[in-house]
Amino acid sequence: MGHHIESLDEMAHRDSREEARSRREEKKKKKSKKARMSSSKEAVATDNDEEDNEVDDDSIENVDEDGNQLLPELTTVRSKMLLVIASIERSFSSIRGGEATPELFDNVRVSAYGEIVSLSSVGQVVIEDAQRATISCYDPSVANDVRDAVRDMPGLSLNPYLEEGGSGVVIIPIPRVSEETRKEIVKELGRQAENGRQRIRKIRRSAMDIVKKGKDGKLEGISKDDAFRVGKDVDSVTEEVLSVLNDIVDKKQKSVMED
């Protein structure tokens, strides 16, 4: 089972990175110290609202060319569950605790050259220390656009500025997150994780509804033995994916609370 979990974890991370490259530009939010705690929670909620719009079909459907219902394909079940994990990871990536990482900027989209592009395509992020990050723009002419995109990241209240001399380097002071705010973020991460678990279980239920028909002999050409086997496989995949999700959430919550 450990091998399966490792494979699923790798797939989840891969899917998350692929989705991150196509993300829409984040909605701009007002910045203030007073609203920092609530805006951190809003950032998670906003990301997940977008994800629900993008991945809103948790049902399982499998039919043959004549329209006859078939047992669910395990690859389809796994893929839909991993998309849930990928969406959660994507929303988690912009949430930080005590230590900033380059992943904090993974979801930044920059308006440059007349289009919306990923930050990684126009600059390189370097975490100088716990209180400072820099972005070296490949083309100094887009430095202002990069600065604005970072400034408008939801829930972070960052105040980036350009290095003098026109070098194309954006300097980003990283404010320390209070312990109270971290605790609130941990709670919100837990709520979002539970929403993910519910979606994964919903996918399982959709698959098992079809399996039950097979067990009851209501699927033409499907044996009860095959239905029982597929049902066990669906349960096994569900357990593995939930284990991956729990591990991701635990690690994220711990990282938020770390100094």
Structural description of this entry:
The protein is α+β, with helices and mostly antiparallel strands and 259 residues long. It contains 6 helices and 6 strands, in the order H-H-H-E-E-E-E-H-E-E-H-H. It has helices at 2-20, 36-54, 74-92, 143-151, 179-215, 224-257; strands at residues 109-112, 115-118, 123-129, 132-137, 161-162, 169-173. Helix 1 (2-20) crosses helix 3 and helix 2 (36-54) packs antiparallel against helix 3 (74-92). The protein is elongated. The relative contact order is 0.17. The model is unreliable at 1-9 and 12-55 (pLDDT under 50).
Concise summary:
With 259 residues, this protein is of the alpha+beta class.
Provide the structure class.
alpha+beta
**Helical stretch tally:** 6
N-to-C SSE string, H for helix and E for strand: HHHEEEEHEEHH
Question: Main sheet: which strands, in order across?
Answer: 3-4-6-5
What is the percentage of strand-forming residues?
A: 5-15%
Number of strands: 6
Main sheet overview: 4 strands, antiparallel
Distance between the termini: 33 Å
Q: Categorize the overall geometry.
A: elongated
Q: Whole-number radius of gyration? A: 22 Å
What is the typical, i.e. mean, pLDDT?
A: 79
Task: Name the poorly predicted regions.
Answer: 1-9, 12-55
Please estimate the helix content.
Answer: 40-55%
